[in-house]
Design brief:
The structure is a homodimer of 388-residue chains.
Chain A (H helix, E strand, L loop, with lengths): L3 E11 L7 H6 L4 E6 L3 H5 L1 H8 L4 E5 L8 H14 L3 E6 L1 H13 L6 H6 L12 E5 L11 E6 L4 E6 L7 E4 L9 H19 L6 H23 L4 H14 L13 H13 L3 H16 L5 H10 L9 H18 L16 H11 L12 H11 L1
Parallel strand pairs in A: 1-8, 2-3, 2-4, 4-5, 5-8
Antiparallel strand pairs in A: 6-7
Helix pairs in contact in A: 4-5, 7-8, 7-9, 7-11, 8-9, 10-11, 10-14, 11-13, 11-15, 12-13, 14-15
């Protein structure tokens, strides 16, 4: 069991009508709020009005239009707004993209250079002071509501990079499952794949982390149980609530406590998103089973067999390689049952950039060195070809 | 799924050699430290010297001799020391009793009246400002290292009461599994029963908390798997590490997220400890199976059957009442296999105070009103008689 630090002080307000507690929390940070949101779904759902009404004692500056796969241009714009308007606290109302954008803005405000320089140098100390960020979550997916990470895209340079810092952890997140009732089936499915991916990225590591492994399996079983229900019955509170809490617990450190980090599939998927701007969860659903098949070996088979038994309930008496392959097959079938497109071909993606994408992943991440199964650019190209 | 708030910002430093990070964390609070510890086992193990050495840049005031079931007298003494020596931060090195004592001291420092008044009025706003508390944990048991509660005893009035406040949450807890290598078998067993009790107290509640239930089962399975190993091989790092992390996760809010609180067995056990000063975990191990048998009914049987299947791996096709009873029997057998005395008779306890104990429990807790199965004083006496 590896050493680890776990420090996640986000104040989670979970359940019905929790929005009303938010003003009390935010008041301690100040009165000037940058309200960050996406494409307008929160206006259609009425949430925008509820938020505005809850914060009627605050001065609110709007920053709408945050993109899926949020762009560095929006981060620049938000940071400039914060400086110009002397913003005290950011409130992100939306999903992972909106929250990530708010987090990056909260740090970029205090960064002297360009926001993209900050992203490129995040691991080298570019992130320091930040403005406090609160969130109102509208989709169960990225877990950004309870972690200290953000992913920002630069479509000019075709890069999608992750910044991580304890100061990026939201101060408070309002998790009202009812705010996810209006999430369409397609996004519910992609979000569910994203939650599962966060767990699967770290699950296939150490052998001596029994408790952490059981918790990983708990999150996976929850998504497997409730994603189909939420898609079938979008207003099923229990399903939406369990998925929402699964989203937060999947990536806040609980599922990799004592385990070496991995994230191979995320690194590969980030290349796909950077080149083709695809939905993150869909990219992960396509890449993950192929990655699993590629790294299955004498060294990894026991863990994949455990995955088949503990997550999918398969027969432990089956020969272990067969069992491992059955587990991977179950995962692929599950994603397919949620109507997720399961090949890159279905997204119109061909292989013309695979070589440069693979090289970029190896150059900019630990995929070639510290991963569960380290991958060369050639390995990554092979996995991507299997995804076609 | 009930509404809940989850906000647990304790900085957990888990693993080998983590003590060296503590001075950096503590320095932000000041230089004057009240070092709180128990009966001297940390001197025998060498931990006391390691702590002193790590904190050589700090001014340290010792408060040793904290009792198991810590007394209000020690809280008074500690609070007086803090005032007299202008203490900035408390460091509790020990188990739950030591940590609970430090937490109570941290609040009593700022309370104008007597410390026992503060305990009695904790739920009515008596706890406000506190000094920061850090901990170095030496036994996997109470989870006090990562929660905002403390239990203090008054042997004069025969009362053992819980105080709860967010400000009692430790700022930082050092969890080095090796510090539990020297915990004797008897205490390892009692601590394991305590961890399991924390989960079982909340497990038998709501039906729609799938993820939380899976996490409860994860913690229970971890203790069932590793407690016998830790007793057989006291220096098995993996066993000690998994038990230690289970201790922290059992009671930090994760296992009751979305569930109504219960704690019936703790309320009954607190009466036993207050009258007879018994080991908390032992009292819980005795009371819990008898409480389970007493509350088993048409209303509760499904959950007890799920407990039998998901925690103990029993056959789901068995008739559900039989299954429920088999699960309870498994639990009792497990505690017995750890050499825990499983009757009050073995502790020399007779029934002479049961009536007043039962009345006190109903008067001072929610056991008669908001529990999973509300109990009258007569019910409690019946359960206690079954424990004889």
């Amino acid at each position: 069991m590896d050493n680890f630090e776990f420090c996640v002080g986000t104040d989670i307000l979970f359940g019905k009508g929790q929005l009303e507690k938010l003003p009390g929390v935010m008041a301690q940070y100040g009165k000037k709020v940058l309200l960050v949101y996406g494409g307008g779904s929160i206006k259609r759902s009425g949430l925008y009005d509820r938020v505005k009404n809850a914060l009627k004692e605050f001065e609110i500056v709007d920053l709408g239009g945050v993109e899926p796969n949020p762009r560095v241009e929006t981060v620049r714009k938000g940071a400039a707004l914060c400086r110009e308007k002397n913003i005290d606290v950011l409130l992100a109302v939306g999903g992972g993209s909106t929250i990530d954008c708010a987090k990056a803005i909260s740090a970029a405000v205090f960064y002297e250079g360009d926001a993209w320089d900050m992203v490129l140098n995040a691991a080298k100390g570019a992130i320091g002071k930040t403005l406090p960020v609160c969130t109102v979550l509208t989709i169960a997916a990225t877990g950004s509501e309870m972690d200290g990470a953000a992913v920002i895209s630069n479509m000019e340079t075709k890069e999608k990079l992750t910044i991580i810092h304890p100061n990026l952890l939201p101060k408070c997140s309002v998790l009202e499952p009812e705010n996810t009732f209006s999430v369409p089936a397609r996004q519910t499915a992609a979000g569910s794949a994203d939650i599962m991916s966060h767990v699967m990225e770290v699950y296939f590591g150490a052998e001596d982390t029994f408790l952490t492994d059981c918790i990983c399996e708990s999150v996976l079983k929850t998504v497997i149980h409730y994603a189909p229900i939420a898609i079938r019955e979008p207003e099923n509170y229990t399903a939406r609530a369990n998925l929402m809490w699964a989203s937060s617990l999947a990536i806040n450190g609980l599922c990799n406590a004592g385990k070496a980090h991995d994230w191979s599939c995320h690194y590969i998927e980030h290349e796909l998103s950077a080149y083709y701007d695809i939905t993150h969860g869909v990219g992960l659903a396509i890449v993950t089973p192929q990655w699993m098949r590629y790294v299955l070996s004498d060294k990894t088979v026991d863990k994949f067999a455990a995955f088949a038994v503990n997550v999918w309930g398969l027969d432990p008496h089956t020969e272990k390689f067969t069992l491992a392959r059955q587990g991977i097959e179950k995962l692929e079938q599950f994603f397919r049952s949620l109507d997720i497109p399961m090949t890159l071909g279905e997204l119109g993606i061909k292989d013309e950039h695979f070589v440069e994408m693979a090289k970029h992943a190896v150059d900019f991440t630990g995929i070639g060195s510290i991963s569960y199964v380290p991958l060369t650019p050639e390995d990554i190209v092979k996995i991507l070809r299997e995804c076609l």
